[in-house]
Amino acid sequence: MDKINPESTFKRLRNTYRLVLMNDDTFEEMLTIRLSRLSVYIGLSTTFVVLVGLTIALIAFSPLKYYIPGYGTKESRTALQLLKIRTDSLEQAIRYKEQYMEGVKKVLSGNAPATLDTVPLVLPKLESSND
């Protein structure tokens, strides 16, 4: 198996070819273009990049973006954020009420622990002034 010679690969990329467009009836040359494989590759790559860029710009800067699934209007996104905040606060309120109800059930059933609900205060002793 022959190894690929990089010099021959670059030579093949730089070899020039001629593209001739002729009139079929009169055999008159209408257009002649000199091309190489490298110029064709660069031209096609540039065309591809430009088309992708134009497509992305068209979608990003026009109302077409609203047809993409999952992308909504600004108003719907702000409304969704507000609903998420409200839902979180309601869930927290429900948790607090469930904890309260569990505490009330324990007290009514007599299973409440005998712990104090207050923190004892440690007050400094007053010095007696016998002067």
Mean pLDDT: 85
Succession of helices and strands:
HEEHH
**Biggest sheet layout:** 2 strands, antiparallel
* Helicity, as a percent range: 40-55%
> What's the end-to-end separation, in Å?
114 Å
Strand order of the largest sheet: 1-2
Strand content: 5-15%
- Please report the total strand number as a whole number: 2
**Are there runs of 5+ residues with pLDDT below 50, and where?**
none
Quaternary structure classification:
single chain
Evaluate the radius of gyration: 41 Å
Please report the number of helical segments: 3
In short, what is this structure?
The protein is mainly alpha-helical and 131 residues long. It has helices spanning 6-14, 37-60, 74-109, and strands at 16-22, 29-36.
